[in-house]
Amino acid sequence: MKVELDDATTVSSTGVESNASAYYIVDLINAVTTGGDDAVARQIAHSVKTTGSGNIQVMIGSDALYVDSSNSPTAITPSANIALAISELKSAAAVSRAAALGLNLDVVEGGNVQSLDIVFASALNSATGKLH
Question: What local confidence, expressed as pLDDT, does residue 124 receive?
Fold first, then answer.
């Protein structure tokens, strides 16, 4: 799209006037854009404490991420060893099932779930209006 003035006079820095043959106010170039096919719609992270005794199952709608050889949902018990736990949680079968369900599964080390304390305040100071 172009928006052009019908009649324009230009003045140079030295004061010389001239009639411009084409003076465009707007000159848009046609462009082809593509959607965000590879955009990440949402990311969710969960911290898992690997003690070697707790079971984990990830559900995507009614589909279980971890299944046995007959495709029956089977929770896994990650090892207390973090390297083994990552390998178990990020198995080729789990990554493949996640991809088939339209998700990217990744498992990484680094969270510290043992040091998380959540405290809810329960007293309201009527003089200040603040929770204590």
Answer: 60
